[in-house]
Amino acid sequence: MNILLIGSGGREHALAYALTKSPLCDRLFSAPGNPGTAAFGENRPDLHVADPAAVCEFCTVHAIGLVVIGPEVPLVAGLVDELTATGIRAFGPTKAAARLEGSKGFTKDLCAEYGIPTAAFARFTELAPALAYLEERGAPIVVKADGLAAGKGVVVAETLDQARAAVRAMLDEPGAEIVIEECLFGEEASFFALCDGTRAVPVGTAQDHKRVFDGDRGPNTGGMGAYSPATILTPALERTVMETIIAPTLAGMRARGTPFTGILYAGLMLTADGPKLIEYNTRFGDPEAQVLMPRLVGDLVPALIAACDGDVSGVEIPFDEGRAALTVVMAAAGYPGAVMRGSVIRGVAEAAADADVIVFQAGTRAENGQLLADGGRVLTVTALGASMMEAQARAYAAIARIDWPEGFCRRDIGRRAVAREVAGGGI
């Protein structure tokens, strides 16, 4: 079949890498795509993915059998609804179900209604009651913008002054809403489940690194690196997550008449009281996809089709349990703030000469035979290894071969996993 992949980031490059391994994939189109996805099919920057009618027409003309939507914005905007109404199979949640990512307040209310473990919270649209709540609760405390914020609409305030500033900034826009919640303590992990509206099957684990600088310092970003598997998520903890978080979420969404189909990505805090939900994403993560897809040893396409068709009961998505994957994001100077575009990147081919290294492209563009930076997160350098320590060393060795003075990366991606390995935890 012909497949249309929506998106242009590192996640989409990783998905293109996995989708084209399937014998079911005859032809892959990526819209708009990037120079990395071009190696796996045809980029279509002319297709305006924010125009559902144009996407539906493209699918009809090119006999698209499956649309895979990578980023959250078209999901929250309802692209799946438009495609499904036209009779086109689309992987991802409907607009109503994508509210699990599109509105943090919606998700917190669902958690409260169905007993899903999460941080204590309150929702606000006005400044005065929000500031009063801060005084009542104290710091540390977490302030979140309600809507989509590309992973950056969260402030973990260590002092009340920081919290007040965050509240004022987020409520400054007309119609803004925020969630203020208890600051949870523990280690974060990412859990992925493939859902058909009723059932779910696990699709791997990872750990992301949100803060921009080493040692988890600085502002939150879309993610500066990740590794998989997240060994801190033991089989027993995974069962707990499925039973106490994923299953009641699916039940709650179904009861509301908005069943969830697609990838449910649970961002977790592993507290002393057990796993608690921090937030949901309703698609593969970025950069988590860049460590999940290289470890995948099964065929992704039948699993996605099964979810679309409403029955994942017989689906298995096997991963290479003997291999770890670690990815390091190379970002443009200034990220997550303003960045300079157009700097030349050299050495990507040299970095990927190792068979166990894949350089996934995100914010790049090709021009006059050169690869140029064209965004904040620009490259994700992924390496595989028999241990996390080996994958980490291989990834940083590959980064050393990339010539891009205007870029930077964290130098401690995977430090917790490596420390556990050294202590005898294995991958």
Mean pLDDT across the residues is: 95
- Which of globular, elongated, flat, extended, rod-shaped describes the shape? globular
* Topology, number of strands: 23
Strand content: 25-35%
Distance between the termini: 36 Å
Provide a short characterization of the protein structure.
With 427 residues, this protein is α+β, with helices and mostly antiparallel strands.
Descriptive report:
The model has no long low-confidence stretch (mean pLDDT 95). The radius of gyration is 21 Å and the shape is globular. The strands form five sheets. Strands 10, 11, 14, 15, 16, 17, 19, 22 and 23 form a nine-stranded antiparallel β-sheet that branches. A five-stranded parallel β-sheet has the order 3-2-1-4-5, with helices on both faces. Strands 6-9-7-8 form a four-stranded antiparallel β-sheet, with helices on both faces. It has 427 residues and is α+β, with helices and mostly antiparallel strands. The protein has 14 helices and 23 strands.
